[in-house]
Write a structure and sequence with these properties.
The radius of gyration is 23 Å and the shape is globular. The protein has 482 residues and is of the alpha/beta class. Strands 1, 2, 3, 4, 5, 6, 7, 8, 9, 10, 11, 12, 13 and 14 form a 14-stranded mixed β-sheet that branches. The protein has 15 helices and 14 strands. The chain folds into 2 domains: 24-91 and 241-451, Aminopeptidase, CATH 3.40.630; 104-228, Glucose Oxidase, domain 1 (3-Layer(bba) Sandwich), CATH 3.50.30.30. It binds zinc ion. Zinc ion is lined by residues 266, 278-279, 312, 342-343.
Length: 482
């Protein structure tokens, strides 16, 4: 036992030495000032309250969306940043009318985004299981011309380790197997309806996709075991090219100005409520992190861009536009890390695509933990999809974020008509701001960063390792052939 503890002691000493070797002595005071500044003067909660109260939802391409873009721009300007709009045009979608009748009974339903401008489908309903490829392969003709009933998530009792697909990927599969429409049912109980895009490409889909409540969906699955069911789905929606703008504030680096850290979060939201959690807490944290840098006149080595993306919900439109511009200019090579805050709340640690800078992340976390022991300094790594880090990651740019948490109560309102300001916890929002500001400062001021732009052949392997080949192929974003 003694031998073990001595060895453990040496290993611990070694890792602490390595970790702390990554940080700079000055950081401890800087982090303390960040902590005090945020605790004392954070405006994230009050700014989000005002935005959700005076603007409402922030749907891309809508009047509200444009107001939100100006609101964010004016805030960053008021913190004396060099701010600019990055306009982009994109196919956008907004909902119109809908009616869903099943066996002559009307059901509460919302359309999923990018459903057809006009649809009027009446057809038998079939149970699609989890709506995964393996479900269709059981009888590939079963859903042809029918309306398929599938869950947004995985059904209770599904096989361990089964990978769920995103609702857009499930819709693409239903289309591939010639279904006439898709009725999704929510996983969250309580009669809650969920929206979100059902398109993997961001363009209109050929069949209507709607969401009904969990209770109605499970009930229909039971009824389908007893009798035939017919459904009628009627809808009208708007689709067309809209103008929107990312908002970018820049802080020039001191000694390494040609290296850049991008911190971003999407400002846009869906229209069923005010998008307080998705992504009010993330985007207004980014704005308040910028406010904290300005208030403390922080001047790290590398350049920082604070970016509020629009169009995330419609298919990462703003972050794709940002990366397309950065590739055109060649400036994407300067980006050493992209930090994404999407529904990030009350961090307990940090994450990154790779482990190359784990020691640095841990050393930053150690200083944070010395200031506040509620910070657990966890570290995780891996690749995933479906938020604004994705276009950066698919160009080999290292991405990172914070390991936060949200209660089941809050998560059940994801993309739903109950995602409103009363769900926001002020203390947890402040925690997101202070611990993210510390991470950002550490990455922007570190003497060296180990993670580099990932070469394409290595990136391909990493994506396969992380089970992302199939979803990217379905989305038409897998550029490595078969
Ligand atoms: Zn989001």
């Amino acid at each position: 036992m003694i031998y073990k503890s001595i060895t453990y002691g040496i290993v611990l000493l070694f890792s602490v030495t390595v970790a702390s070797a990554q940080s700079k002595p000055a950081w401890s005071n800087v982090f303390k000032s960040i902590n005090e500044e945020v605790e004392k003067s954070s405006a994230a909660y009050s700014n989000l309250k005002e935005a959700t109260g005076s603007i409402g939802h922030r749907l891309t391409g809508s009047e509200n969306g444009a107001k939100a873009e100006q609101f964010a721009y004016d805030l960053l300007k008021s913190y004396n940043f060099d701010v600019r709009f990055q306009p982009f045009e994109a196919e956008s979608w907004s909902r119109g009318t809908i009616s869903v009748t099943i066996n002559d009974k009307a059901y509460k339903a919302v359309a999923l985004a990018h459903s057809p401008v006009k649809a009027d489908v009446t057809a038998p309903v079939v149970d699609g299981g989890n709506g995964l490829e393996e479900d269709y392969k059981k009888d590939s003709a079963a859903v042809k011309g029918k309306i398929v009933l599938v869950p947004i998530g995985l059904l209770p009792g599904s096989a361990q380790g089964l990978h769920n697909l995103h609702r857009s990927e499930k819709t693409a599969l239903a289309t591939k197997y010639a279904a006439a429409g898709v009725i999704f049912f929510n996983v969250a109980p309580g009669g809650i309806l969920l929206t979100g895009t059902a398109s993997v490409t961001g363009s209109l889909i050929p069949i209507p996709a709607v969401c009904i409540s969990n209770e109605d969906g499970m009930q229909l699955k039971e009824e389908l075991k007893q009798k035939a069911i017919s459904a009628s789905v009627k809808m009208s929606n708007f689709s067309g090219t809209v103008k929107s703008r990312n908002i970018i504030a820049m802080l020039k680096g001191k000694s390494l100005p040609n290296e850049k850290i991008v911190i971003g979060g999407h400002l846009d939201s869906w229209d069923l409520a005010t998008g307080a959690i998705d992504n009010g807490i993330g985007s207004f944290s980014v704005i308040d992190i910028a406010r904290t840098f300005a208030a403390l006149k922080l001047q790290p080595a590398r350049t920082i861009e604070f970016v509020l993306f629009m169009g995330e919900e419609e298919g990462l439109l703003g972050s794709k536009a940002y990366i397309a511009q950065a590739i055109k200019e060649g400036s994407y090579k300067k980006i050493r890390y992209m930090l994404n805050l999407d529904m990030s709340n009350d961090p307990r640690g940090y994450n990154a695509t790779s482990e190359e800078d784990k020691a640095l992340f841990q050393s930053i976390g150690q200083i944070a933990q010395a200031i506040d022991t509620s910070f657990k300094n966890t570290f995780s790594s891996g690749f995933d999809l479906h938020s604004d880090h994705q276009p950066f990651m698919l160009r080999g740019i290292p991405t990172a974020g914070v390991n936060g948490h949200l209660s089941r109560e809050v998560l059940r309102c994801y993309h739903a008509d109950c995602d409103s300001f009363d769900l926001v916890n002020e203390t947890e929002l402040k925690n997101t701001v202070r611990f993210s500001t510390m991470l950002l400062y550490g990455l922007a001021d570190a003497s060296a960063l180990q993670a580099k732009l990932i070469p394409d052949n290595i990136l391909k392997e990493k994506l396969i390792e992380n089970n992302l080949k199939e979803p990217l192929q379905i989305a038409g974003e897998w550029r490595w052939g078969n």
